[in-house]
Design a protein that fits this description.
By secondary structure, the protein is an alpha/beta fold. The chain has helices spanning 44-51, 70-79, 95-106, 125-140, 183-192, 206-216, 218-229, 242-246, 253-258, 279-285, 344-353; strands at 11-16, 62-66, 86-90, 112-117, 121-122, 144-149, 160-168, 171-178, 195-205, 232-234, 237-239, 264-269, 273-274, 294-296, 299-302, 308-311, 316-319, 324-328, 333-337. It is built from eleven helices and 19 strands. A five-stranded mixed barrel has the order 6-9-7-8-12. Strands 14-16-18-19 form a four-stranded mixed sheet, with helices on one face. Strands 5-13 form a two-stranded antiparallel ribbon. Helix 3 crosses helix 6 and helix 6 (206-216) packs across helix 7 (218-229).
Length: 359
C-alpha cells in the first residue's frame, strides 16, 4: 500500500506468542514477557508497537498471538494507544516459521512485512527505523532481509550472522547463520568483526517468504495453508483451524527458511538492542546505582555489588551479596548467580513437570 506521498508502506507483524520462561517468576504462561514492564512504564508489547507508530511509513500492525492471550493482547494495545490492523490467534505454539506464515498468508503477496518479536528492547528506535528504510529496496527485489546487531561483547546467549559481500550501503549478503556459540567461539566472532548478533527481525515481501517456505519447508507451508483456508474471520480477528494448525511441525524461521534460501541479506545496526532473554540480559540493559546494582521495587541493598534485585511484592533486603539476581513476586522468589541465569528455564521445566501452577 502507499501513503499520500506515494511511498510504499510496510506492514509490521508483531509476534506475541512467546512464554519467556527464563524470566520466571515474573514471566509465566498467562503473563509472558511481552506483557511485562521491563523497559520503563510501558510493557514490551506496547514499546514494540510504538516503534512502528508512524503511519506515513507503517500500516497498522498485524499481531500473531496465542489464542489464550487474545484478551490480554487487545487490552495492552488499547492501553498503549494502538489499534491493530489484524489479530491472528494461534491455536497452539508452533514456533516462528508457522507464525510468520500465518501473517504472510493473511497479507497480499506484494505487501512488505516487517516481522518483529514483541519482547525485545531497542534503546534507539530511530536507528531501527533508518535501518528498515535502508532494507526496503532489497526487500522489494525479493531478498529476505534480516537485521543484525553489532556485538560489543562475546555473548553466548545469542545466535550470530556472518556478513558476506556488500550489496549496497549498509547492506550485505548473509553468508551463514550460527547457533548460540560457546565462549571461545564467541570471542573469535568478536575479534573477526564480520559477525552480527541475530536479532530475529526480518523484512520481506509476503509472497517471497511463502515461496521460500514452500521450497525449504513444504510441509509447514502446506499445513499452515490448510489452517488458513479453514480459518474463521470476524471483525479483524483471524482464528486458523485448530486441527490443521496443531499438525504443523514446530520450527524457527531461521531453521526453516533463512539458513537455506539464496537471497538472504543482513543490515547491521547499532540500536541498543537486547532480547531481554534472561535476568543477566535485563541486568545489562538496566541503569545501575553507584555499586553497579540494578534495583526495582521495594528493595534495600547494603554492601552489595553487581546485583539485579527486583520486587513486585514483599520488601527485599540484601546484605553483603554480589553478582546475584534476586526476583520476588507475591508467590515466588528466585535467587540465581547472574552468570547462571540461563538455567532458570531448567528450573521452570522442573516445576512444570511437578505440575506446579506457578509456571
Amino acid at each position: 500500500m502507499s501513503d499520500t506521498k506515494g511511498e510504499r508502506r510496510i506492514t509490521p507483524v508483531i509476534l506475541s506468542g512467546g512464554a519467556g520462561t527464563r524470566l520466571w517468576p515474573l514471566s509465566r504462561r498467562l503473563q509472558p514477557k511481552q506483557m511485562l514492564t521491563l523497559g520503563g512504564e510501558r510493557t514490551m508489547l506496547q514499546l514494540t508497537a510504538a516503534r512502528v507508530a508512524d503511519r506515513t511509513l507503517f500500516e497498522a500492525p498485524v499481531i500473531v498471538a496465542g489464542a489464550d492471550q487474545a484478551e490480554a493482547v487487545a487490552d495492552q494495545l488499547r492501553a498503549g494507544g494502538t489499534a491493530p490492523g489484524m489479530l491472528i490467534l494461534e491455536p497452539a505454539a508452533r514456533n516462528t516459521a508457522a507464525a510468520v506464515a500465518l501473517a504472510a498468508l493473511a497479507a497480499e503477496a506484494d505487501d512488505l512485512l516487517l516481522v518483529m518479536p514483541s519482547d525485545h528492547l531497542i534503546g534507539d528506535p530511530a536507528r531501527f527505523v533508518d535501518a528498515v528504510r535502508t532494507a526496503v529496496p532489497l526487500a522489494g527485489q525479493d531478498w529476505l532481509v534480516t537485521f543484525g546487531v553489532r556485538p560489543d561483547r562475546p555473548e553466548t546467549g545469542y545466535g550470530y550472522i556472518r556478513r558476506g559481500e556488500a550489496l549496497g550501503p549498509g547492506l550485505f549478503r548473509a553468508m551463514r547463520f550460527v547457533e548460540k556459540p560457546d565462549l571461545a567461539t564467541a570471542e573469535t566472532f568478536l575479534a573477526d568483526g564480520g559477525y552480527d548478533w541475530n536479532a530475529g527481525i526480518f523484512l520481506f515481501r509476503a509472497g517471497a517468504f511463502l515461496e521460500a517456505l514452500a521450497t525449504h519447508a513444504s510441509d509447514i507451508a502446506a499445513q499452515v495453508g490448510a489452517a488458513m483456508d479453514r480459518a474463521t474471520r470476524e471483525e479483524g480477528v483471524v482464528s486458523p483451524d485448530a486441527t490443521a494448525f496443531e499438525a504443523v511441525r514446530a520450527q524457527s524461521i531461521d531453521r526453516a527458511v533463512m539458513e537455506h534460501a539464496d537471497r538472504i541479506a543482513v543490515v547491521p545496526v547499532d540500536m541498543q538492542w537486547s532480547d531481554v532473554g534472561s535476568w543477566q540480559a535485563l541486568f545489562d540493559a538496566s541503569p545501575k546505582d553507584g555499586d553497579s546494582n540494578a534495583l526495582s521495587g521495594e528493595v534495600v541493598a547494603l554492601d552489595s555489588r553487581g546485583c539485579l534485585i527486583r520486587s513486585d511484592g514483599p520488601l527485599v533486603v540484601a546484605v553483603g551479596i554480589e553478582d546475584l539476581a534476586v526476583i520476588a513476586t507475591g508467590d515466588a522468589v528466585l535467587i540465581v548467580p547472574r552468570d547462571r541465569a540461563q538455567r532458570v528455564q531448567d528450573a521452570v521445566a522442573l516445576l512444570a513437570k511437578r505440575g506446579d501452577p506457578r509456571v
